[in-house]
Amino acid sequence: MQSTETTFSFSDLAISPPILQAIREIGYEIPSPIQAASIPYLLAGHDLLGQAQTGTGKTAAFALPILNGIDLERREPQALVLAPTRELALQVAEAFQSYARHLPDFHILPIYGGQSMDAQLRHLRRGVHVIVGTPGRVMDHLRRKSLSLDSLRTLVLDEADEMLRMGFIEDVEWILEHTPPQRQIALFSATMPEVIRKVAKRHLRSPKEAKIEAKTATVEAITQRYWLGSSAHKLDALTRILEVEDFDAMIIFVRTKVLTEELAEKLEARGYSAAALNGDMSQALREKAVDRLKKNTLDILVATDVAARGLDVERISHVVNYDIPYDTEAYVHRIGRTGRAGRKGQAILFVAPREKRMLSAIEKATRQRITEMRLPTHQDIAERRVEQFKAQVMATLEEEDLEFFRRLVQQLGREQGLSPTDIAAALTFLVQKDRPLIPDEKPAPAEYTPSSREPQKKFRDSEPRDKKHKRKEREDGGVLYRIDVGRNDGAAPKDIVGAIANEADIPGSSIGHIKLYDDFSTVSLPADMPKKSLKRLEKVWIVGKPINIRLWTGDAPAAPAFGKPKQKKGYPKKNG
């Protein structure tokens, strides 16, 4: 049995600097229990039998050691990850791509049923380092000899019990029999039924075990809610929640140290008393921020998990998970900062549509249903401001000596022939003009529904203008970019809109013309798009492929990330 307390950092492991840099940028600070228990064994070359629930950080537990051992010079499958579903295969592939962001010319390919076989064959011919696939499609490629496992070093069975439940276990064994005898196997499963143990006994060599008990936490004193929506609208959603929630003090959890500073500054600009709390701050500064929270001179801390560890301040009434945590244990630790000393607490979780799997894992870990919340409307905010203003007036009448001010109002009324109501109205306007009781009406951030995946505007076909200019200004005021997903990959405009809006904080309404070609697409994006948004888009995947975004020149398409295809003229088909 492995301890659930992690006492070392990722930098203490024998992981290469480019991978360490990537996980620092992502926001990982210390290994989760399953990562701490698994990574040293896998780095040492042992087979592994890992038992841990969904949402505990299993993907990094096997992905980081695999990436650490990849020979980038050899463009052939060196690792194979078997996953029970298309969705999980895509998630795992995206995680690999994220961890490998600083590994030059790294190539990974997700393969699953329902995707174009021609596209998969094309990528396999160009060569890839890691395959992530469902058992059935992997078998198809092995039978037609389009996939060779001769150079395989590592095989991972992810969620083995789920593959058993779905009837894939015989397929898995068939694949195992087609792997080289000298290869490392890591088998991960939430439960360990006898059939899975038999598979492990037949195919794993003296495996080490990493078993993490499923820790369930009951949090009856904490009311849990979640908002399902795009990451592009999180700041607006948070601002609306702060307007109407009756909170004493609040911790807002984010994944990275940089975001603690950015979000705290944005909240202060909106009139809230907020400060950052992260591991880059000196101990003295961290203690000062916590002391201000205790003394009621600060209301909001924006923190990372490590910086907030052990924080115990009674007046914290709310915890907001602005970024969903990487594992369920971190979530339980986070929301445990509220509901202290017999008081009731509130926990709010922001969830992007692609993060619903983690939401389910959190519900299981906390043994509580997390209820979906609707964002406050413009009317809700106006009513709340009016209530607060009335309460301030009543408190002032009860607590302050207003005799001088009464005489002043009476004098002004006599001199100008004004009623007390007119004077009170003018004073109310002056007091509240920086925070109007009826705020300017803005559209609420889009709540996620199945139909909200559809693009909100009609996209017209558009031919690129003047090939001599690389940066093409569009009629819609945008700039035209090329991305490496198209019709042959099964991409649709809604996929492109959803991915760009979610990952680059660009509202869907700001995304212009989209044109689908066979092997790529073009999309018009705002001319004033921040550089950091473009950097985020460089790491985005759509329909299982990295989009490899760059400015559209109107010339023959450049080679995509997976290799160098035959050059084609980059013009759309008619009626495309």
TrEMBL record:
- Start and end residues of each Helicase ATP-binding domain: 39-210
Q: Where is the DEAD-box RNA helicase Q domain?
A: 8-36
* Database matches in PROSITE patterns: DEAD_ATP_HELICASE, HELICASE_ATP_BIND_1, HELICASE_CTER, Q_MOTIF
What biological processes does GO assign it? cellular response to cold; ribosomal large subunit assembly; RNA catabolic process
Q: Name one GO molecular function term.
A: RNA strand annealing activity
- Keyword DNA repair attached: no
List locations, semicolon-separated.
Cytoplasm
Question: What sequence ranges are listed for the domain Helicase C-terminal?
Answer: 234-381
**Motif interval(s): Q motif:** 8-36
The chain's coiled-coil residues are none
The Basic residues compositionally biased stretches are 565-576
Keywords of the record, alphabetical order, are:
ATP-binding, Cytoplasm, Helicase, Hydrolase, Nucleotide-binding, RNA-binding, Stress response
Q: Which InterPro entries match?
A: CsdA_RRM, DbpA/CsdA_RNA-bd_dom, DEAD/DEAH_box_helicase_dom, DEAD/DEAH_RhlB, DEAD_box_RNA_helicases, DeaD_dimer, DEAD_helicase_DeaD, Helicase_ATP-bd
Q: What is its EC number?
A: 3.6.4.13
Q: Which CDD domains match?
A: DEADc, RRM_EcCsdA_like, SF2_C_DEAD
In what ranges is there compositional bias, type Basic and acidic residues? 454-466
Q: What does this protein do?
A: DEAD-box RNA helicase involved in various cellular processes at low temperature, including ribosome biogenesis, mRNA degradation and translation initiation.
HAMAP family from the xrefs?
DEAD_helicase_DeaD
Q: Which family does it belong to?
A: Belongs to the DEAD box helicase family. DeaD/CsdA subfamily.
What is the designated name of this protein?
ATP-dependent RNA helicase DeaD
| The species this protein was found in | Methylococcus geothermalis
